[in-house]
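Q: Sequence in, structure out?
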Amino acid sequence: MRILKDYQSVEELRDFIVRYKLLPTDVQIALTCRYYGISTIASLDEDFKRVQWLKTIP
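A: Exactly. Output:
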C-alpha cells in the first residue's frame, strides 16, 4: 500500500463540484486519482459513477 498526498487545486475543486455535482471530499478523491493516473477505486459511493473516467468496484 502506498499513501498519496492529496492533489490541491482550488479552481479544479470548484469546477468538479459544479460539473459532477459531488461533495468536496469526493471531488478531492477524484482529482487525486486523476493526478496520479488512478482509473479504478474501491467504493460503494454511487456518486463516483458520474465521473466518466473513474471506475468504481465494490
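The mean pLDDT is 94.
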